[in-house]
Write the structure tokens for this entry.
Amino acid sequence: MKTVHAFPYPIREIEHCWIPLKGGERLSARVWLPTDAERHPVPAILEYIPYRKRDYSAVRDQTTHAYLAGHGYACVRDDVRGTGDSDGIHEEQWGPAYDQDALQVLRWIAAQPWSNGKVGMMGLSWGGQTCLRMASLGAPNSRP
């Protein structure tokens, strides 16, 4: 397998940032961006999964999200409620708290200065199911 290291857009990584939730909790996220995204906002891709961004999925995340950022997307990978570095208690996998958190994360991404307000999601297994759930709820894809 070949790993690509040269991209059309130079990138920067924010290893850790907090995404605030309405209830006062915070979700921990890792973000990859084209370096000029604050001056020229880009569409964003969210991967919303519980697999600890700092260790368990770090290598896979770096390869996947750096590649996408290097091709003109902002990529956000967060640890869901109660997993990794995020606040809260990890409860039932498809409980309503996760849906509400994901909707808040999508809105947060759309409102960032590096985002053009268009936000998509990606994922396999747990993450893929979350993508479908958000689509069924009519998740926002533009600035509120």
